[in-house]
Amino acid sequence: MNGSEVLAMQVRRHPQHEAIVSGSNRITYEEWDKTVNQLANGLASLGVDKGDKVILHMPNTEEFLNVYYAVQRLDAIIVPINAKLVYDEIQYIVEHSDAKAFLTHDLLFSQVMSLAEFDLICLKTGEAAAGWRSMEHVIQNADLTPRVSTSKEDDEVALLYTSGTTGKQKGVLFTNRNIQTVATMMAIEMKMDLQSRVLHMMPLSHSAPLHLFMLSATYVGATHVLAPTFTPDLLLDLVAREHVTHFFGAPVAYLLTAKHPNIQDYDLSSMTYWVYGGAPLDYKYLHYIHHIKYLCR
């Protein structure tokens, strides 16, 4: 089993189930899979092939999910990178990974526009620019022929880079087996199912939000609720409005949210699992987390 086929499996099972909530957009599994397939075909027509490295430079938006699965459908290797990296760090990863293509979001385009000078296939959301194709145009003009990933359990499918706090960033390769094992484990431990609604607010370029929560949610056909950034107001609003059941965040997200002056005004009763990671949470701050917990079921 590979990530692309997990998505295709959910389309066969629950084609009209809500897959993605991103801003005002609501997308079913069938619609999501169609976009993924067209983007995969479009990238293939531009020269992306099996084993090529494709850098994904986007915040948590529907386009991130489209690119992630489209690249895996091509049996290429997806390279998600942090949207907050500076240009020198991005250039290093482009060169170190031997990337074939670079896909970015219009919100981040000013950071990377000069990458068009490199020997890269460059795509961005929104309008085309000098040296950059429009991702939407590529999708709209792509072949509709269904495409199936043939990658096996031990094939390499993802390359994530460390933060580089003690030196240059280091690339870490993941196989289908690596990813599917932790995704399955998390889905079981966190009791995710078709009715789960998982909020992705921490950057999906990081392994925990990506592999432990995004992949596990897709594995069970849950709904992905996307937010391109974190604020306490946005977290509380999305949990209440979208009836979120699962959230993974860094400790600071909980500390800031628990101190929100109007937290009592939000209905957080849908939440079943608040999960934190990435750093320890000091015992003296746990009462703030308990404050959130008591507002839930």
From TrEMBL:
Every AMP-dependent synthetase/ligase domain range: 9-283
Keywords: Ligase
Pfam families cross-referenced by the UniProt entry: AMP-binding (PF00501)
Gene3D superfamilies the record matches: 3.40.50.980
Example of a GO MF term: CoA-ligase activity
Protein name: O-succinylbenzoate-CoA ligase
Species in which this protein is naturally found: Pontibacillus litoralis JSM 072002
